[in-house]
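Notebook B, p. 112. Complex prediction, attempt 2.
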Amino acid sequence: MSPRAASAWRRWAVLALPYAWLALFFLVPFAIVFKISLAEQAIGIPPYTPLLALDQSGWHIQATASNYAFLLSDSLYAKAYLNALKFTAIATAICLLIGYPMAYAIARAPDAWRTRLLLLVILPFWTSFLIRVYAWIGLLKGNGFINNALLELGLIHEPLALINNAFSVQIGLVYSYLPYMILPLYASLEKLDWTLLEAASDLGARPLRAFLSVTLPLSLPGIAAGALLVFIPMVGEFVIPDLLGGPGTLMIGKVLWDEFFTNHDWPVAASVAVALLALLIWPMGKIRHLLVKGAA
Amino acid sequence: MKRFPGSAQAAVGGVSLTIAEGEFFALLGPSGCGKTTLLRMLAGFETPDEGRILIDGADMTGVPPYDRPVNMMFQSYALFPHMSVAENVGFGLKQEKLPRSEIAARVAAMLDLVKLTRHAGRRPAQLSGGERQRVALARALVKEPKLLLLDEPLAALDRKLREETRFELVRIQQRVGITFLVVTHDQEEALSMAQRVAVMNEGLIAQLGSPREVYEHPQSRFVAEFIGGVNLFAGCVVGHDGRMLTVSCAEAEAMFAVEYAERLATGAEVTLALRPEKLEVSPQPRPELPNRLSGMVRAVAFRGEASSCEVELPGGKMLRITFPNAARAVSGLKAGDAVWLGFAAGASVVLPS
Amino acid sequence: MTKKLSPFLLVMLALGYLFLYGPIVSVVVYSFNASRLVTVWAGFSTHWYGELLHNEQIKDAALVSLSIALMSATGALILGTLAGYALARFARFRGRALFAVLTTSPLVLPEVITGLSLLLLFVALERLIGWPAGRGMLTITIAHITLGLSYVAIIVASRLESFDIALEEAALDLGARPFKVFAVITLPLIAPALAAGWLLAFTLSLDDLVIASFTTGPAATTLPMVIFSSVRMGVSPQINALATLILLLVAVVVIAASRLMKPKT
């Protein structure tokens, strides 16, 4: 076998399995989701109308855009999408505001400390997501820790409504996704050439100026990676609005879940998914580029 | 015989080269000249688009690196960090599926040759730069390849170590008798170690010859400037008598008598290349030299065994001269001194313009 | 060069960690609360741990989750390493762009989308070819492998990018064939990244609620599903105890792993 042919064979030997797996278990499902979004809810197993139906006049395709029309007509869905975007945007910004100084501090810390500090960030990340969200229930509810403490201290006379509203959802989102912001930020800052700051200082720049002119621009890829890594999954978040949210905090992830599990309306759930996906295509394109090139 | 008649990639143009068995050969050139690409083609990591590579008569052009009787000493050494020195050196022999006892014996002999026997059990991280280099060399040599490639072997070493290692490499090469091909951008490295040097520029070979030939008789401006320092005079032929050329040089405001056997037409433009050590400088005029100039010293740099100085001619041209510090007459030279310069008729080289 | 951190940074660090750990600490503290009313302190007690250890439902679910996690982490490691290697080392091949998208997307997609799409696939497959017959541990495992492989691929690809390729070339030059080079040179040197990838995939699987809920069947209830249904009804002291145990386990594993991965000097 010529060396070129041999190396081509080698490549496909490596690629075949993961490519096939991903094609089957990742790509094909999306086609199916799209197809079902064009179906209608039906009684039976599975609970939707098939794409090809046979009747007296032969095979024909049953597809309808009624689900999408339904999404557009019922303001519930629009509100849910907007809520999701709103909460996510705010939470991402807060994660950045908290996460950047932390990542910067860890990157600048003496070597011995750095590993420990990173470990302390990673530890919650590896702990059960569900449990960390659940922890806030105990803290925020009417007779929860915070309210009890404030009442004890006499700072308030009635429990504050801290849970099942936008406040608790926002806190939950920031809390859960903070490590996802810190890690890529840290990765980007850690690679920074700190002597650049020394050069800036030598040339007369005060610390704030040096930060704005040197550090911030150079850490932009890390910021972008962190922001996208947080934003994209957060938009479709379900657990947090479900556990910590209330009627006014409907997010699209929860809508999808309810359509599927409560209403058993698979076609509508599918169309919600497709619409959400359409929303995320552009940011996902950006993150792919950043991830593989090594901002992470 | 290693022959590579013509090979063409964007990085390497048409190159045709024959290297003799047991020779110490150097590929010299500035970065980007294509020498590394050529090296990688010989090792098997790149394939030439055109042309062939013959080793001992066998066509190796498409053969992958693990099947070639060629081994390489990498610039970064590329020692396997998770193996000991002995395991590193023995790795290549292991791939040949030799019996353990033979591998052990050959590894021991090689470590002895590079004087690393004491370090056999250590990991690369525990060695100094010079020691790591010797491991890399031993690892490549132990397989007794037909051709050993060395990629910038002295680049990572400090100056003192470089000198010692230069001699040691030549010694080892003579001892094992393997053909060495060194790729480097450092002309001192190439000239001091190799028996023949190919100077490369922009993918092509500019000149091929022994170190002395390439230094004393450069055939082009590029080679003259790249190898060692040089003073260049632009001039115009005014006379030729069969053995001597008379050249008029405007920037030096002088006429030069230069030995040159070939015929050149009157009025032809030439460049004279004069090595700094061939230009003699003295505080007194030197009427016995056929070519004479005078100027003012602008700077003197003391370099231990020799000194170099910059002299400015009345027309503004700057010349570089080196002289041994043992020469009493010029040992007290300093900036601002008026000096006389001169060179012999055979001291300069005539280059086409 | 490492000068001391400014007070602003130190305060931010402290506040940040307080924020991250406050809720966790409260869960741990209240797991020892004698009172059933979780947030009213009534004295120290390990009563709930005892109840937890007798909770069959939770124990069964933990077993299910652990088995799935073990299988899916291993599957994800194998596939993810192959994918990561291809991404890092194969500069051009047909369909590379698509492959890169497929590999990195599960990482970021909202889980409701991944979960729904996988379930729909399983339903369609079952109708078409009879496999998978019903949903349960197998389908959850497949789903988790798909998710995990994406993480492993990124970790492996990123590690290989910073891997000195001269080491592989040197091995080739010395006579080792490409597969041998991978096995004897590359693999041992990227082993820590592989271990990290496996651990990550394992944790992801253990922790996943949404995808498991979509792709599960009647017989397979995972630990997160049990926790979720319990938590929806309100705060539960047994859950606090469970949470503390999980925390402890994770802390031990993470610290042990980081010790193991310290570079040997």
